[in-house]
Structures are given as structure tokens and as C-alpha cells.
Design brief:
The chain is an alpha+beta fold and 559 residues long. A five-stranded mixed beta sheet has the order 6-15-14-9-10, with no helix packed on it. Strands 2-1-3-4 form a four-stranded mixed beta sheet, covered by helices on one side.
Length: 559
């Protein structure tokens, strides 16, 4: 303590001033990083969320859209997406320091806190990159702070704050349910506390607008996350999980956390919650790797309990403190180098931090003021809109997944109008063409019935169907630029499987499908020569742009 006092006297700082100085430096560095690091495709997508505010979105809850909306009110360029993200991390760090509740603050302890925080790679990243994880981290910190205070006081104001923080977490990311669940599992006595039940009910009340949005849109987020993202077991997904977690949390920091879990037991009921939260998250998502790929950042909320636990144990264990100083602290230079590379633009374009502005500028110079159509996922249209400010939208093909563009249905505003169709991608030369009279068929719905689900190659299938046009535009099947044909699609893997197609003959020719009307009939199609397997079978309308998602797939077995 005497040494700290003497240092304070020499440099004129006490621990509190140093804490806020470090916070300001941290935020300042993040502002510089946010300004000079090219916006990622996901961020451009969330920028569109902010341009189209709603109580929910296809992929995520609405808070990230509100963040970009507010950022765009104050700034243009990269900060129009990232401003609130940078500000939020200031308060996230402050909340984590409050959670620690250091009783004998010293300059050295402040330095230790920031060294550990800076070592958590993904935690740093979400200080300048805007994704739902940025508000999720903030509300996770707020929730844990309120939970700790509630354990001490059980006061009404912390009951209300708990409700708000739980709602905030869920409005940020659905993974919030895991945080709440693991904390409850660590302290089952909470279930007998009426104030906890009241907090839950209040949080549920705050979520009513989002729940209503999900209901009115047929629960797109839940269907996507719980079903559409599943691609089955692959050893690759299982084996890559732990290496990815090492990268997300910094292998040196992650190793120290594992050591803490092995050597120490929780000191109190709050620490028990931190143990349950961290271990629960890591194990839960490792288990989910049996059903598909797990994104490394899905566990980033563990950064907060990791930071708290490593800080506390480092002050108790001299060997661990020495490890932080001699191993974890030097790793910050590697993280700093990575951050400099992000700004430099020298990283490969496939990493997503460079090249998009120039590429979209080229497309803009050709398309001029005409709207641009992209196929595939959301990245192309989102980047074009962000980097050029011009209109763009996506037509989701049967080969890909649906996105928020399928809820916006922006292409319906341009039926019969000139458009530019972009056909290039990141791995091929630029390609595209103009169309004078645009027509799309992506909103046409086809309901069909299979009389049999066990077939053989060469069998003829007779399929009853109802085809409905819910749009305000008639569909011309003999359109001069975008003629339409029916095909049967066979897919082995819902998420990444290759598709095979077979022609469909309609029982009666269709020339025009009037706006708002339906037709009934049947298709006949011959089962192609495919390997025996279980397939997802669907009917698609195909034009020169893509094969559209017009029907729900059904299982079909080919012997």
C-alpha cells in the first residue's frame, strides 16, 4: 500500500482517477478502431435494421437495430453503425468493476483489471464491432450486478432492475435464456422468492411487443435458430469447438480459467452462479455442436464471469498473479498487432474487414441509380446499401437461407421496373445485367401433397398442389425477360446439401397467375437417378435469377 501511495504522489493519480483514465483510453482506442476498420457485412445488415425499425427481425431481437438507428442520428460513415457500441462498452467495464466491488482499491489492482479485460479477445472486439453481442454483454453485466445486489438486499429497486436487465438481455440476444437459467440452477432457493417471480413477470411484460411481433410473423427467429440452422452431426463441428473457444477467450486466459475451476470452489452463492454460467455455456454449446456448426462468439457472455473470477483469484494466488503478468500481459501485444492489421486493410478480403467499399463502388458505377438485385444471403445487398447509400435487395434462393429481406419483401416495390441483377460473388469476376421489366416469383406459395414418400429412380410422381399469389402483381409465366418454370428439388442436407432438380409438368398450362388469386391442379415429375437416401423434396418456381423458396420441404426416401 505504501508503494501505491508513493506512486500516486509522484504521478498525481489515485486509483479512481487511473480507473477513469483507463476507461477513457479504452473508449478512445475503440473509437479510433471503429472509425478506421471497415464495416463488416453483418454490421451493414444491422445498419439496415436501424433504417427499418421494428420490434423484431428474422435473425435477432430488435436492440441491435435500435443501436444502429441511434448511432446514425449522430454520425455518418462507420460510426453510424458503431457509436453506441463503443459507448456501451464503457459502461460494461464500469459495471464489471462494480461487480468486483474492490474493498481496498489500488493502482496495481486497476492495472490488473484492465490487463485481464484486454486479454479477452472477443470482449475487446465487441467494443468496436456492432453485433447483438455488444448490448448482450452490457445487459449481462447489469444483470449480474443487480443479482449480486439483490442477494445482499432483496430490495424492490433491484427487483425492478433485475426485470429490466433480463428484458434487455433477451432484447439483445436469445442466449439470455441460458444466463437466467444457469443462475437459477446455481441458486434454486430463488424460486421460492416472490420478488424473483415478480421480476420475471415484469421482464415478460416488457417483452410483449417482441412476442407479438414473433406471433404476427409466424415465429421466424425461433424457426431459424431452432430448426433451419441444424445441419446434423459432423466430426468437424465437434472437434473445432474447443480450439475456437481458445481463440475467442485467448488461450492463455482460458487456461487460467480452467485452472481456477479445478483448484478453487466458489466462495459464495454469487460466485457459484458465475461458475454455473461459464461452465454451463461452454458445455451447452459444445453439446449443440452435435446438431451443427457452433459460432465461436456464441459463448462471449462468459467473458464477464471470467474477468471477475480471474481478477479475484489472481489477488489470492501469487503464482496466478505472476502468470497474468508474465504470460497473459505479453499476449496483449499480439492482440494489439491484430487490431493494427484490421485498420491497415492488409488482411485478406475473405476475413471481411477490407475490399467491400471498392467492390460496391464498382457495382454502383455500373448500376447508377437503378436498384441492384443480389441472390444468396444478406451480405451483398447490405454492403451495397451501406457503402453506396443506394437501393438493393436480396432474392432468397432455395439453395440458401431466408433472411430479413424475406420479411421486408422490398422486391415487390420494383415489379415491372428497371433493375440491375448482380451475379458475381467474392470468388468470381464481376458479372451482371440490366432488366427493363423486372418480375420475381419468390412470394408465390405452393402447398402440395405427396401421395407416397417411398420412391425409386424413374418413378412418376403425381402431386396435387395449390399455388397462391399473395402479391399485388400478376405473374406472367411467359414473361419476355423472366419466364417461369416449375421444378422439383431434391436436397440431402437442409443447410448445405447440394440440390438436384427435375422438371415438373402441370396438369393444365398456366399463363398468368392473377394477383391475390390461387390455382389448383397437379404436377407430374419423374424421380431422377439419385443415390438411395432421405431427401428433402420441394417444388420451386425458377426464373433466370434463381430457384425460389416457394414451398415447405417434405421428407422423401429414394430406395
Amino acid at each position: 500500500m505504501k508503494r501505491d501511495i508513493s506512486i500516486c504522489g509522484i504521478i498525481g493519480f489515485d486509483w479512481k482517477r487511473l480507473l477513469y483514465l483507463f476507461l477513457v483510453i479504452w473508449v478512445g482506442v475503440n473509437f479510433i478502431q471503429a472509425i478506421f476498420t471497415e464495416v463488416m457485412s453483418d454490421e451493414a445488415y444491422y445498419f439496415l435494421y436501424g433504417e427499418n425499425l421494428a420490434w423484431g427481425y428474422f435473425d435477432h431481437p430488435p436492440l441491435v437495430g435500435l443501436m444502429t438507428f441511434i448511432s446514425n442520428l449522430f454520425f455518418g460513415g462507420n460510426l453510424s453503425v458503431r457509436f453506441i457500441t463503443v459507448v456501451l462498452q464503457f459502461f460494461t467495464l464500469l459495471l464489471v468493476w462494480k461487480i468486483i466491488a474492490e474493498k481496498t482499491p489500488e493502482i496495481g489492482k486497476v492495472v490488473l483489471f484492465f490487463v485481464i479485460a484486454a486479454s479477452l479477445v472477443m470482449f475487446q472486439t465487441y467494443g468496436f464491432v456492432t453485433t447483438p453481442d455488444a448490448p448482450f454483454l452490457f445487459f449481462t453485466a447489469l444483470f449480474l450486478f443487480c443479482y449480486k445486489k439483490f442477494l445482499q438486499e432483496e430490495s424492490w429497486h433491484y427487483t425492478f432492475f433485475l426485470a429490466g436487465s433480463m428484458a434487455g438481455m433477451i432484447y439483445s440476444k436469445y442466449h439470455a435464456v441460458l444466463i437466467i437459467g444457469f443462475v437459477l440452477l446455481s441458486n434454486l432457493r430463488l424460486l421460492s422468492n416472490y420478488k424473483i417471480w415478480l421480476a420475471g413477470l415484469l421482464a415478460l411484460g416488457l417483452l410483449v411487443p417482441h412476442i407479438y411481433w414473433q406471433i404476427t410473423n409466424d415465429f421466424p427467429s425461433f424457426r431459424y435458430h431452432l430448426s433451419d440452422r441444424s445441419s446434423g452431426f459432423r466430426w468437424k463441428y465437434f472437434l473445432e469447438y474447443l480450439p475456437n473457444q481458445l481463440a475467442v477467450f485467448n488461450p492463455f486466459t482460458f487456461g487460467a480459467i480452467v485452472y481456477i475451476f479445478i483448484k478453487y470452489k466458489p466462495k459464495d452463492i454469487f460466485e457459484k452462479g458465475l461458475y454455473f454460467l461459464t461452465i454451463g455455456f461452454i458445455v451447452f454449446f459444445w453439446i449443440t455442436s452435435f446438431r451443427g456448426h457452433v459460432e465461436p462468439h456464441w459463448t462471449v457472455a462468459c467473458s464477464i464471469p471470467m474477468l471477475v473470477l480471474l481478477y479475484r483469484r489472481s489477488l489470492e494466488n501469487k503464482k496466478l498473479l505472476r502468470y497474468v503478468k508474465k504470460v497473459i500481459a505479453p499476449s496483449l501485444f499480439l492482440i494489439l498487432l491484430a487490431r493494427i492489421l484490421l485498420i491497415s486493410g492488409l488482411l485478406p478480403e475473405k476475413l471481411g474487414f477490407s475490399g467491400k467499399k471498392e467492390k460496391n463502388g464498382i457495382i454502383r458505377s455500373i448500376a447508377n441509380e437503378i436498384p441492384v438485385i443480389f441472390t444468396g444471403s444478406f451480405q451483398g445487398a447490405s454492403n451495397y446499401r451501406f457503402f453506396t447509400g443506394k437501393e438493393a435487395f436480396v432474392l432468397s434462393a432455395i439453395t440458401g437461407r431466408q433472411t430479413q429481406f424475406d420479411i421486408w419483401k422490398k422486391e415487390l416495390d420494383y415489379q415491372g421496373k428497371p433493375v440491375f441483377i448482380y451475379r458475381g460473388n467474392n470468388n468470381s469476376p464481376f458479372d451482371g445485367y440490366f432488366a427493363k421489366n423486372f418480375q420475381s416469383v419468390n412470394r408465390i406459395r405452393i402447398n402440395f401433397t405427396l401421395a407416397e414418400t417411398e420412391v425409386h429412380p424413374g418413378d412418376t410422381l403425381r402431386i396435387s398442389f395449390v399455388m397462391h399469389n399473395p402479391t399485388g402483381q400478376a405473374i406472367d409465366f411467359h414473361h419476355p425477360e423472366f419466364p417461369v418454370k416449375c421444378q422439383a428439388a431434391y436436397k440431402v442436407d437442409e443447410r448445405r446439401g447440394k440440390l438436384d432438380y427435375a422438371n415438373c409438368e402441370l396438369s393444365a398450362p398456366v399463363d398468368i397467375l392473377p394477383a391475390g388469386e390461387s390455382i389448383k391442379g397437379y404436377f407430374t415429375t419423374i424421380v431422377p437417378d439419385l443415390a438411395p437416401d432421405n431427401y428433402l423434396f420441394s417444388i420451386t418456381l425458377v426464373n433466370s435469377i434463381c430457384a425460389a423458396r416457394n414451398s415447405e420441404p417434405v421428407e422423401l426416401n429414394i430406395d
